[in-house]
Protein 1
Amino acid sequence: MSDAPIVVHRASGTGGRRVTVRGQIMGLAHSDGDLVEFLRRAGLPDAGDLLDDPAWVEWQGGPPHDYTTR
């Protein structure tokens, strides 16, 4: 487990991944666009640049940028 402030959790059974920022649930993302919007609402206007930075984002239970169940 990392200390990244943004966590993209394992895909849900119906698709999409829960997103938390510093422990606060932001919503269920079905795409990078959804994720970026949640982060913009959390005060990170350039969030698209952070998605592949492990210091900022921890992707749990699946590969980054994949929002489907397997």
Note: Residues 51 and 57 are 6 Å apart (CA to CA).
Protein 2
Amino acid sequence: MIVISLLFFLILLGAALYRRYYPVKHIPCLPVEEVPDGLLLLDLRDYNESNGSIFGQALHIPVAYLKRHVRHIPRKPLHIIAQDAIEKNVGIRLLRCYGYEVKSYSVTACDCQERGRTSRWNITKRSKTA
């Protein structure tokens, strides 16, 4: 009985870690300036992180409030703006569960140009002064 309980716990833990930390595949990282027309900008950052943001035309719903306010998001292809990779992963997976099509994303804590736009594994930061 203990072995079954432990196995069940490990499966739940593995699913939670996968959903939060494993990168979402086949969605390109684009700077906000290069987002094609027709995509709705959806800012998933917390209110205090996006205060005074340059993304004034974006619909702002923090990732913690997505389940509650998903009905306010128009049914259009989306470009996600997130603070970090965890917020991006959780947000994209939640939106996919609700039937939304996420075409691209931007992470404000990382420059897409440095990461090669589609390489989600290269998270090495380069010094701006070097």
Note: Residues 43 and 81 are 5 Å apart (CA to CA).
Protein 3
Amino acid sequence: MADDGSGQDFHDAEDPRLAALDERLRQARAAEAARSGVKQDGGRGYAQGNRVIAALIGSLVGSALIGWLIDRWFGTTPWGLIVMLFLGIAVAFRQIIRIGNERPE
């Protein structure tokens, strides 16, 4: 860091040229997003997609595990697994519909 001898630290001061550049960059990004039709907030959609995938996989794997355990304990092979898989699919679709119907912030 070069010392100009004045004893003042200019790194904390607001530079009007940098502020103007930041403002122009923000406007250019907003204009480009409007021109290309791309929304700037992609985080919410990505998070919602992850929730849908987790609901689908979790419901199917969980219900398959419970169905398999029921078959092992009661000797009802393969009916416990089949019934629980259908219930897991129903639960997964119900959760996906609920996630899809959430209001945006």
Note: The chain has a mean pLDDT of 85.
